[in-house]
Write the structure tokens for this entry.
Amino acid sequence: MTTKFNKDMYAKMRTKKDEPLSSLGKRTVRITGKGLPAPTALVTPLVSGTETTRTASPTTSVEEIPTPASKRARLSEWEKDPRQLTIWSDEKLSWERAQGAVTADDLRDLPDKRFSAIAAHHVHKLVQLLGESLHKSAEYAAQKAMVSSMKSQTNTLEAENSTLKKDFIDSMGEANSLKEKVKSLNDDLRAERQLCLEKDEQLLGAMEKLKTIAAKAVEAFQQTDEYNTVLFSWYFKGFELLRRYLVKHPSGVDLESLDLEEVDKEMAADETAPSTAPEGDILETSDPADDVARDV
């Protein structure tokens, strides 16, 4: 449990926290309201080799108050035995040791010391530095773990980047080869297109020639005797069928509405049936072309 004495001592040590180390062990001056007025008073200077004169107040007096550190002779840094220095007696050593770790040997003398003595040696600074050191160590460990993780991620990303670079280079090579192939194919296609255009022109010319040749061939065929014979036989057969149809229908036939296909079917059916017509009405079944040939 914290007492009032501990609070006062802690407040007092907090006020001494910012004092320079050179002022520790020096005599201090306290002004009180007791004593007779004195014209002047000599005070021990803070810096060796100099003297300071102060004028006292008529109602105050000046007296020296020895501090706990001034009760014993302080040795300089070079006069101290390094083997006898501990973190409880030397501030520099405590500062240096606070950057590392406090061992069990350092804490062994702590129960035998009074709180005032520990506070006088600025143990709270040691604890503060130790806490800051532990905090920094924890932050350093966290940052170290983060750096290790980032390094592993960086290595992974570098490997992926290297693989992607290789794939990109291969893809660029394939793209260049494909571009060359596309260029050659375009040239071939252009040549084939030009060849097709030339062939189309040749085909158009051949078609025009075929039309002319076909017209001449038809005209020449129409002037032959065979064509005239076949044409005459077809005309003769048609008139013969019409005559037979008119003989079969003596009542009259409307020639405007006459369907020649029906006439042809009816005459074909009559030819297949047994003939019952008179001898004068029986038609010859010889080929008209033969009759024409005999007449000729």
